[in-house]
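Methods — Computational structure assignment.
A single polypeptide chain was analysed. Its primary sequence is given first, followed by the predicted tertiary structure written as structure tokens.
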Amino acid sequence: MNAAEILQDLLSPAGRADPFPLYAAAHRLGPLLPVTDDILLAVGYAAVNDVLRKPAFEIPAEPSSRPSLDLMQRSILRANPPDHGRMRSLISQVFTPRRVAELRPAVEAAVDGLLDGLPDEVDFMDRFAFQLPVSVICELLGVPPGDRHRFRPLASDLTAALELTDTADDAADAAAAELGAYFAGLIQDPPPDGLLAALVAARERLSDEELLANLILLLVAGFETTTDLLGNGLALHFQHPELPIDAAYVEEVLRYDSPVQVTTRVARADTEIAGTPVPAGSNVVLLLGAANRDPERFPDPDRFDPRRPGNKPLSFGAGAHICLGNTLARLEAAVALPRLLERYPAISAAQPPTRRDRLVLRGYRNLPVQLREITR
């Protein structure tokens, strides 16, 4: 297979369901692969890390008539300097390691509250993996508890716009419009505490469009990847029940089955990656999931091993655009999964799980579990 065939297969239903054999095939070709004259596929860990950190690369500007794509372009997710730094500086104060560490008691309380009273058989994704991170990010933002149930389907529809294929459709646009209308109403009378109030107070440094786009991004990104991390982590526990679940386990889940598999960059100047010239204007597809399975960086990469040394996956990116909430996501998973197993040590899969049909954001749609051992 060549790089073009690998990319084409990754975008197929079978490739989206199981991209890892295709990543292995890509590694056999090299760390940076030409697809066309102006498209490159970065698969090696060092190559992906270099692109993420080099100022010569930026987020591709993708003008679109689609409201869902236009929304993304106005947020820190798709912004470039100097707008990216200006917006990020307003938000990052909430996600410092110290501030996140201070949230641990609140996360523990939220986990225990969700675990109380669960039925014997339950969809883990719906009743826990979504509920925990959405409650945490909504508390940080100041979003009223009564509104939180509506966000999961809206986020699912909106994030389809992030896929490499042209999946931004009417549902994604409708989700962008509904979330925009929701936050537009909320900022007229913001709750007194939380990041939402702080951003509203700093409106002279944000346009109205930027304020709405970043509030929506913070909400959606604040639970979407953590939801998938929790689901992927529990599914891997069912395959490896002998392994203790701790911070190292969470880090290996991020490496082995990353909630974010792909991102993109464009070269703003002539540069070089992995010994290969990259002309200005070249588009680079960064396969984060492949970088996390690079045998040059991770020996025996297809083995799930939480004790592997020097485990630093690129699941949340690197450099200026590293995910603001990565420390919080790690904390939530490191608290939630052990407490779940302590409360329900006999937890098991009740039915086969179903994956979402996505490549960029990888996770489960449903993960039915039996919480208590069945006695006969």
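Note: The mean pLDDT is 92.
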